[in-house]
Amino acid sequence: MYQKILVALDNSLTDQAMLPHIAALAKVHGSELLLLHVSDGWAARNYNRFQLADSEEMKDDRAYLEKVAGDLRAQGITVRTHLALGDPATEVLKVASEAVCDLIAMTTHGHRFLKDLIYGSTITQVRHRAKVPVLLVNATK
């Protein structure tokens, strides 16, 4: 059912709440995982415009993706990684479409009220605009 799952990682401890669920799902369905992180700092958002070198943030993000991918590959799961640059919601949707993913997995952070407005915009945009199912794992549980 799920041949390719886009796993949106934010390079934080919240990812650890989602990874066991995604690993189990991938094993059951024989899915390929596409691990995605979107660097959204100033250098990332202006990378192409000013032909910048990778920032330390971007280097750390690539290393993080490869570490997580290695851990999942050790479990026998097929994994690819992709570091995108720019607006997280836009990039998640774009990569999911271009890679023909049939599920998007993300973590929620359990924000309430004002913090939802500030921090919840990525999930809100993705879940409203995605053309495929979106799996949300609550990182606070």
What does this structure look like?
It is built from six helices and five strands. By secondary structure, it is α/β, with parallel strands linked by helices. The chain has one domain: Rossmann fold (3-Layer(aba) Sandwich). Strand 1, helix 1 and strand 2 form a beta-alpha-beta unit. Helix 4 runs parallel beside helix 6. The longest helix has 18 residues. It is globular. The model has no long low-confidence stretch (mean pLDDT 89).
Strand order of the largest sheet: 3-2-1-4-5
CATH superfamily: HUPs
Strand proportion: 15-25%
* CATH level-1 class: Alpha Beta
Uncertain segments are none
By DSSP, the count of extended strands is: 5
Q: Architecture, according to CATH?
A: 3-Layer(aba) Sandwich
Order of helices and strands: EHEHHEHEHHE
Gross morphology = globular
Largest pleated sheet = 5 strands, parallel
Distinct helical segment count: 6
* Proportion of helical residues: 40-55%
Mean pLDDT: 89
Helix and strand composition category:
alpha/beta
Radius of gyration: 15 Å
Distance between the termini: 27 Å
The overall number of domains is 1
The third-level CATH topology is Rossmann fold
